[in-house]
Amino acid sequence: MSIGEFIDQLPIFDVHEHHMPATFLNRNVGLLDLLRQSYAGWTQERPYPLPSENREEDPMLTESAKSTWEEVAPYVEHSGSNHFVRNLVQGLDELYDLAGQGITEKNWQTLDAAIRERHLDSNWPHEVMRRAGVREIVTDIYAAPLLNAKRELGDHYRSVMRINGLAMAWHQDRRDHNGNGVGYFADEVGMRCGTFADFCILLERLVDTMEERNQVGLKNALAYDRDIQFDEPDEDLARRAWGNPMASAEERKAFGDFVVDRMCTLAGERDIPMQMHLGTAIIRGSHPLNVAGLIERHPKTRFLLMHLAYPWSAELLGMAFVYRNIWIDLTWSFLLSPSHFKRAFHEAIEVLPDESRMMMGGDNWHAEESFATFRTARNLIAEVLQEKIDSNYFRLEQAQGLAEKIFVTNAKSFFNVDF
Ligand SMILES: [Zn+2]
Questions:
Q1: Domain boundaries 3-22+122-415, CATH class
Q2: Sheet containing 303-306: which strands, arranged edge to edge?
Q3: In angstroms, rounded to a whole number, what is the distance separating the alpha carbons of residues 299 and 204?
Q4: Ligand 1 centroid to 349 CA: how many Å?
Q5: Ligand 1 centre from 365 Cα, in Å?
Q6: How far apart are the first and last CA of the chain?
Q7: Does residue 323 sit in helix, strand or coil?
């Protein structure tokens, strides 16, 4: 069996998606929804504001009314060379039998009708994930970070608890870029949160109730809200921000730094992993080396660092060699740029201190894009491993062993979830 054939039959433990009931299980889905509510949508509009911008609504979560070719065309005619678009179009081609034509002015209405028809069946998204070979899924439901994914999406789902809404919540009117604030978290666990001391109790309560909600990790996506230079906690400075609409920039930053540090401490004490978004986001502050201090202060916390920190993959791998509490989530890197991914993945194989460190996910909203993403990931990982075999770096059996770890066994032990 070649490495490609071996990889094609591997089951997948998918460590990162944004499958959420409102989008993933929506019965009213057409072609334009799949384009907008995917990374292809990011070619038309960046869905998170920069510090210099304001945003009313998340363009990814707004439903599209009846669509026209004029709305579909920009994706395939002006952004057709972008890999997010290529990936999704190829996936749709395979799932909806487009005979290699992609999306055209001639076929788009038929395709739109077929997508709408399929989505009337509530089992369709699960069927697509099954066809992708995915067996277990950890999702990040940022629209409702405390939702019980196993209950809402199915038995094979777990979730992570995104902490952005807490780190950005120095004042009751403050929200993270997804609209979450401290009130949501307190209400969900039945607490009142008047004082800073209450807030500190809330943080611990949230971590201690994760298991009840089938949550298997924390998620720090603050790179979309602020810089990720998380300094040593200064509790006095953080307390000064609490409840203060006039808090200074320094106090607000100290508040976020304090929350992140506290959550890392709680996670370390309970052996709960922390996923962290690195790389492109609010790009002036999202370089991976910014989190080196945080990682060094928490040697007992297991960090799952995401996206090969694109475009700073070499820096991330350097960190993963130095700090032994780092795991690597390849998610999104193969979607952003296949050629960058191949180069970085070659390096990762060579540099990482042991084979338990890598895992992967889809990072998508709809099952169609997840399907496409795993097709791409299987192909690219097989290509790199074949190159490694051809250059006598290692033998076929070693390549197969590594692939199996990346696709399924590393995530099982990392999240302590079996199937
Ligand atoms: Zn994501």
A1: alpha beta
A2: 12-17, 134-139, 157-162, 215-220, 274-276, 303-306, 326-329, 358-359
A3: 20
A4: 23
A5: 9
A6: 25
A7: coil
pTM of the predicted model as reported, rounded to 2 decimal places: 0.96
**284 Cα: distance to centroid of ligand 1 (angstroms):** 19
- Long-range contacts from 383-387, C-beta under 8 angstroms, 24+ separation: 383/342, 384/342, 384/345, 384/346, 384/349, 385/3, 385/7, 386/2, 386/3, 386/4, 387/346
Longest distance between any two alpha carbons in the chain, whole Å: 65
Exposed, middle or buried: residue 17 (CB in 10 Å: 0-12, 13-18, 19+)? buried
Report the alpha-carbon distance of residue 301 to residue 326 in Å, rounded. 9
Centroid of ligand 1 to alpha carbon of 200 (angstroms): 27
pLDDT at 47: 86
In contact, 14 and 136? CB cutoff 8 Å? yes
Residues 6+ apart with CB under 8 A from 383: 342
| 3-state secondary structure (DSSP) of residue 12 | strand
419 CA from centroid of ligand 1 (Å):
23
Separation of CA 20 and ligand 1 centre (Å):
12
364 CA → ligand 1 middle, Å: 7
The beta-strand segments (E) located in 331-383 are 358-359
Q: What is the pLDDT of residue 52?
A: 87
Residue 74 has pLDDT above 90, yes or no: yes
**Do 189 and 209 touch, CB atoms closer than 8 A?**
yes
pLDDT for 54 beyond 90: no
- Kindly report the length of the chain: 419
Ligand 1 center to 372 CA (angstroms): 16
Per the DSSP assignment, residues forming a β-bridge with 328 are 305, 358
Q: Which two tokens stand for residue 199?
A: 């807030």
The CA 396 to ligand 1 mean position distance, Å, reads 32
**Cα 8 to middle of ligand 1, angstroms:** 24
Distance CA 238, CA 157 (A): 35
Query: Contact at 8 Å (CB) between 406 and 6?
Result: no
Neighbours of ion ligand 1 (CB under 5 A): 363
> 59 pLDDT band (50/70/90 cuts)?
confident
Report whether pLDDT(66) > 90.
no
On the CB side of 82, CA atoms within 13 Å amount to: 18
Q: Is the separation of the CB atoms in 159 and 138 below 8 Å?
A: yes
Token pair of 12 as six digits: 């997948």
How many Cα atoms are found within 13 Å in the side-chain-facing hemisphere of 294? 28
Residue-wise pLDDT tens digits, 291-319: 999 999 999 999 999 999 999 999 999 99
